[in-house]
Specification:
Elements lengths: L5 H16 L6 H11 L4 H10 L29 E8 L2 E9 L4 H9 L2 H7 L6 E5 L3 E5 L1
Parallel strand pairs: 1-4
Antiparallel strand pairs: 1-2, 3-4
Helix pairs in contact: 1-2, 2-3
Length: 142
């Protein structure tokens, strides 16, 4: 929002909405920040949703969404514990492997070589070349 990338903001809100609609009920601690994030994009609809969430109409009780603080992200929740890396065999993606986000090259290499599709492609042999780009991809040349 700070960079005025509205399409990106809308896309992320749609992703959040899709995840929330899969739940049996929408938790209030998700609904209120979501409506607050909608307010700059669709202020009138956000105001109606804010009232449906039970907020009054006065300035003193925070009834209008106009005076509500924009949600602040918790940086600790923005870090992924694991990453999924594509494994290319001879230049074509054939599999994926999940490793810790801070995994070193040797750990990623071991995980890739243990993948069933890589084992099948190697057919008991050794790869001619193994290119590991930590955090990005693994390329096995047979």
């Amino acid at each position: 929002m700070d960079e005025l990338h509205f399409n990106t903001a809308i896309a992320k809100l749609i992703e959040l909405n899709n995840a929330v609609t899969k739940l049996d009920a929408t938790p209030r601690d998700v609904a209120e920040p979501m409506v607050t994030m909608l307010a700059p994009l669709v202020p009138h609809i956000a105001e109606e949703l804010w009232r449906k969430l039970g907020h009054g109409s006065g300035r003193d009780d925070g009834g209008t969404i106009t005076y509500v603080d924009f949600p602040v992200a918790d940086p600790s929740l923005l870090v992924d514990d694991t990453v999924e890396l594509p494994i290319q065999i001879n230049g074509k993606v054939r599999s994926r492997v999940s490793v810790a986000a801070d995994a070193d090259k040797a750990t990623i290499e071991a995980a890739a070589l243990a993948d069933p599709k890589v084992i099948e492609a190697l057919a008991g042999g050794e790869p001619k070349k193994l290119i590991v780009v930590p955090g990005r991809m693994v390329n096995v040349v047979v």
